[in-house]
Each structure stands twice: as structure tokens, then as C-alpha cells.
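ok here's 2Fe-2S iron-sulfur cluster binding domain-containing protein, seq below lol
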Amino acid sequence: MNQRPTVNVQVAQTGDCYACATDESLLKGMLRLGRKGIPVGCVNGGCGVCKVRIVEGGVQPLGPVSRAHVSADEEAQGYTLACRVAPTAPVRLEVSARLARPFSNPSLRAGANAAPASLSLTTPPTKET
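and the structure came out like this:
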């Protein structure tokens, strides 16, 4: 079985890292993190729920991105949709819009004993010592 080339992708806000094949979308690789709450919409660049900003690294388009969700000015600043780009080099990205919620709310992070995504469970805050 041939192994597809992968690169490292890092989520700037949390430091989470994942391997992403150079022929798959950043979103598909991100889903392997196992976080509850990562929104997956149309997966065709039309809904905008997977908006990210590429801070470092390189990506190649897998298809068009709707200008309703990423303007030309935003694209010039590194914004794109994670479902429509694949990495060409190690990437550091910032999640934004609705995609930011699962990366900013610790109660939505999946752990080793995570409940199935269909259940709605909350984690009580932990005491700092």
C-alpha cells in the first residue's frame, strides 16, 4: 500500500497539530483530531463554516471558494476555506468564524473517552491549584 505524502498542520490558537495529506483538504485532516463540534457544511466551498487564515506555510486550491464567504481582500490576507485547500508545505492556521468554537471551548474537546458526537455532554470546570 502506498503512503500518501503528508505535512504537519498546526492550529495557532491551541497548538493542536495533525498530519494532512498533500492531496486532501485541511478540513478532512482536521476532522481526524476527533474534536466534537467541528462544523462540516457543504464541503464544496459554498457555506463558509470552515473559514481559516493561513498564517504560515503553503496550500493549493482543490476548487473554487465562494466570494460570499471569502472576499478578494480576505484572500489576500490569507483567508480561505479549509474544505477547498490542501497543504503543500507545513501549515500554521488560525480558525475563525463558526470553526473557532470547538477550538476555544474546552468542554467541546474530545478526549480519549469522548462521548459520541450525537450526545450533548458538558465538562464541569476544573479547579486550578
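fwiw Residues 6-108 form a domain with the Ubiquitin-like (UB roll) fold (CATH 3.10.20.30). kinda neat tbh
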